[in-house]
Design a protein that fits this description.
The chain is α/β, with parallel strands linked by helices. It has nine helices and 17 strands. The protein has two domains: 88 residues, Beta Barrel (Elongation Factor Tu (Ef-tu), domain 3), CATH 2.40.30; 159 residues, Rossmann fold (3-Layer(aba) Sandwich), CATH 3.40.50.80. Helices cover 31% and strands 31% of the residues. Helix 2 packs parallel to helix 9.
Length: 282
């Protein structure tokens, strides 16, 4: 059992939890993830490590309520317990030797991009962070990104916070101004990572993306997280989750993710119905 020592609501649909997990903290590095189960009846769900705090031995995860499992997880409060919390899993980010990097986060992907940007900052790499959201009400971690970035930009689709536009619009403007980066890290929705990768390929800038397909066991045994990279099958949980964005078959990954949308929606609606029944009985 793993104790929740802190829970913070970041936006109406996004929460942060800190879980006491000293054995996970001991080995955790930026870019890696954990797999948890809230209870014996729950599915296993992966979350990238947002922070590994050596001082209080906690792992922070940031998640959005999008399905039945995240809905159940979000019902837990501080001092409640999570049944399983396995990790760290996956390969850590490769950041050694980088001198100037652009870190791009889109929506919930900012939770994954932040620890990478922070690690780069701590090793004295020049970090230009760009984070994008649909609107002001969905923004989180903006002050945290600003604190660890040499240059920081916030963009929203509707211009309600920061600059108006897409992360790719701002990135293209930077690259057209002869801004050069050793690498670009792009983490967010598949369509966003695809667009960034297609853009940076034109400029010959290596781009790393973080793939988070459906995962079950987190060890490569189930094959559920398979993706195509450089025309070869790879497993995101053991070969990744980070890959060269110029080699990822994003179209295939997008199609595979859509296969589960209907089932996820039905499970979410059913969970919401049960939750309302419980609340009405109390």
């Amino acid at each position: 059992m793993f104790k929740i020592v802190l829970k913070t609501i970041l936006t109406p649909s996004v929460s942060l939890m800190k879980i006491y997990a000293p054995n996970v903290v001991k080995h955790a590095k930026p870019g890696q993830f954990i797999v948890l189960r809230t209870d014996s009846d729950s599915e296993r769900i992966p979350f990238t490590i947002a922070e590994a705090n050596q001082d209080d031995q906690t792992i922070a995860i940031i998640f959005q309520v999008v399905g039945a499992s995240t809905l159940k997880l979000n019902q837990l409060k501080e001092n409640d317990y999570i049944l399983d919390f396995a990790g760290p899993l996956g390969k850590p980010s490769q950041i050694d030797g980088l001198k100037k990097v652009c870190v791009i986060g889109g929506g919930l992907g900012c939770a994954i991009a932040y620890p990478i940007a922070k690690a780069l900052h701590n090793q004295k790499t020049y970090v230009h962070s760009i984070i994008g959201f649909r609107k002001k009400e969905l923004v989180f971690l903006s002050s945290e990104f600003k604190d660890i970035s040499d240059c920081f930009d916030l963009v929203t689709d509707d211009g309600s916070a920061g600059k108006m536009g897409l992360v790719t619009t701002l990135l293209k403007a930077l690259l057209d101004q002869d801004n050069t980066f050793d690498e670009v890290f792009a983490i967010g929705p598949l369509v966003m990572m695809k667009a960034v990768s297609e853009l940076t390929k034109q400029y010959g800038i290596k781009t790393i993306v973080s793939m988070n397909p459906i995962m079950i066991d987190g060890t490569g045994m189930c094959g559920g997280c398979r993706i195509t990279v450089n025309n070869k099958m790879r497993f995101a949980c053991v070969d990744g989750p980070e890959f060269d964005g110029h080699q990822v078959d994003f179209d295939e990954a997008i199609l595979r993710n859509k296969m589960y949308e209907s089932a996820e929606r039905k499970a979410y609606d059913h969970a919401c119905h049960l939750l309302k029944e419980v609340q009405n009985d109390q």
